[in-house]
Amino acid sequence: MTNMIEIVEGTYKIRGDEVSVAGTQFPMVRDFTVGANGGYVTVDATEVLGFPDRCIRIKMDSAEGYVEVTEGGKTKTAVVETDEEIIDRMRRQFQVLEDMTSATKSGAVRAMIVSGPPGVGKSHGVEKVLGKHALLSDIAGADKKYEVVKGAMSALGLYAKLYQFADKDNVIVFDDCDTVLLDDLSLNILKAALDSKKKRTISWNTDSHKLRNEGIPDSFTFKGSIIFITNIKFDNVKSNKLKDHLAALESRCHYLDLTIDSERDKMLRIQQIIGDGMLDEYDFSDEVHGEIVDFIDNNKKRLRELSLRTVLKAADLAKAFPNKWEDYAQSTLMRNKK
After folding, report:
1. Residue 138: its pLDDT value, please?
2. Mean pLDDT of the chain
3. Is the dihedral of CA 154, 250, 97, 301 positive or negative?
4. How far is Cα 265 from Cα 274, in angstroms, rounded to an integer?
């Protein structure tokens, strides 16, 4: 028997507009599936008046957007997080991020993967902790013991970078540097760097002028730690090759998913960080401060990216163009209507 569901909060595009279908019941075809912005549940609309004679997808922020209907016609009670519970959950996850970063810096944790959508503060949380340690090193006159690597990196470049930060208490942060996860040679180097053995030996078995010129040996022991910051959600990867690569990496690392998956989560994260003082340096009045939050919230479905970076872009516009910043924001931060 096909399960019936009732939409609690969801939309369907009708003649180009996203229309709320809350309260409508459908036979369910496929459970909630995570998408680029929230996700969707697939339903059979054949017998439902006003909808196409086929299966359709209902967009929603999370699986809490629908409930199952029992035979008696009553919906089961949905377990829905309150805004306060979601914010508390996110605070706990980011506290775990900071604590795990400290443990990585001390060498108690060899490697960590941090996964989450762009623009929610992953990098900031890691760099804040490492920056405190770097400040102490500066005071003591010691060398900097961490580096953030962004963008593409070759296998040879990876080998050289690992050698540079091979000592104990050193940390390399690969921030949105997913090329090192996709290349077979780079992955083999990382496997050696993250090996569970007490002594981790990394070797480069091909002659290289670059290594000779820089005085880098063709084999060394790596005692440092590594942090990967990525937008890739490992559980949702479909490519078999990439799955194998990520599985090999995940087995050698602690994996922290910040669980900011839905539009609602992202918006609450934005409100949380703004409430914690993100915009204080702009010295806005309470009125302008509220206008920025309202602009992001009211236009979240049309923004090019619902993130903390977008909030800062809006704040920059409000500072530069106090009387017409919203017009500029609509032109630069939002997708055009089709």
Report:
1. 56
2. 87
3. positive
4. 14
